[in-house]
Design brief:
Late competence protein; Beta-Lactamase; six-stranded antiparallel β-sheet; T2SS/T4SS_dom; 11 helices; ATP binding; Rossmann fold; alpha/beta; globular; 13 strands
Length: 324
């Protein structure tokens, strides 16, 4: 099974796949690679072979191999030419077998990467305090961009950076990284209290999931720390409204927020991946809260930017509709 597993990973990496899907049918198991936006069929496995492979993958990821009726998720480190984190997730199906997805996370964030598309964002890392909020769907590059920005701060500004994630997605030399482990008593609540005593300049929080985390994030950003975090929302306004629903006051958000981004990774005609985002600046955020939650006229949303890309021949209308 180790040989079969390694061959699958090698093929996925050769094709620049981000995920490997094992999709059970009544007679066999379909294996598909997610390459950019598309699920591409790769091959099929017999059910008895897949059952043995699944047991092997569960064992490697530290999952309970005896459990078949509950969803599980774990992590496995795979070494090829570089180190990859594999997030292995299983889900029981009505067919009496489990599906499985492997998310491939390469550990390549060891050098900073500043592009013309994002260089203005990196200027925010010079701020002494405040909250930078990243939003967008899964796979839109939120964590990637956050890591690029904190590595810039580490290498160019020589700042002390602490991350709190569930789990840590990218290992970065020279940055203190904390993994949430509820069973071991390592929670967001007690982690926040501990890291604030360690004199961080920048705090990266993996995701705002509930009102408790939202409260700690805002308090940290108001107490002399620069905080970067993510939230799931379809647009910048939606990100702000979600925080308000979580109990964060308008005044707290107006005082703490430096910038709100909502982003997408777009596949162009040339099959390149291009990051685009809508952004609320500090001035626009102030306008939003001072004018009964109305967006300023100067704000250009994703629809505007996608239309521009369509007019310039970078993407087609079908692609534009997909991301709106």
């Amino acid at each position: 099974m180790k040989l079969l597993f390694n061959n699958l990973l090698n093929k996925a990496l050769e094709n620049n796949a981000t995920d490997i899907h094992f999709i059970p049918t009544e007679e066999s198991i379909l294996i598909k690679f997610r390459i950019q936006d598309t699920l591409t069929p790769f091959e099929t496995l017999q059910r008895h072979t897949y059952s043995k492979l699944l047991t092997y993958m569960k064992y490697q990821a530290g999952l309970d191999v005896s459990k078949h009726n509950s969803a599980q998720s774990g992590r496995y480190i795979f070494k090829l030419k570089q180190i990859y984190f594999l997030r292995i997730s299983t889900l029981p199906l009505s067919l009496g077998i489990e599906s499985c997805v492997i998310r491939i996370i390469p550990q390549y964030f060891q050098t900073r990467k500043v592009t013309n598309n994002t260089k203005d964002l990196f200027k925010l890392m010079h701020k002494k305090q405040g909250l930078i909020l990243f939003s967008g769907p899964t796979g839109s590059g939120k964590s990637t961009l956050m890591y690029q920005m904190v590595i810039y701060a580490k290498e160019c500004l020589d700042l002390n950076i602490i991350t709190v994630e569930d789990p840590v997605e990218q290992l970065v030399s020279g940055i203190t990284q904390v993994t949430i482990n509820e069973k071991a008593g390592i929670t967001y609540a007690n982690s926040f209290k501990a890291i604030l005593r360690c004199d961080p300049d920048i705090i990266l929080i993996g995701e705002i999931r509930d009102a408790v985390i939202a409260k700690y994030v805002v308090q940290a950003s108001l107490s002399g720390h620069l905080v970067l975090t993510t939230i799931h929302a379809n647009n910048c306004k939606g990100a702000l409204l979600r925080l308000i629903e979580m109990g964060v006051t308008n005044q707290e958000l107006n005082q703490s927020l430096l910038s709100v981004l909502n982003q997408r990774l777009i596949t162009t005609y040339q099959k390149d991946r291009k990051l685009i985002y809508e952004q609320l600046t500090r001035k626009q955020i102030n306008y939003f809260f001072e004018n009964n939650l109305m967006m300023p006229e100067s704000f250009h949303n994703l629809s505007y930017k996608l239309n521009q890309m369509t007019k310039e021949g970078i993407i087609c209308e079908e692609t534009m509709d997909k991301y709106l």
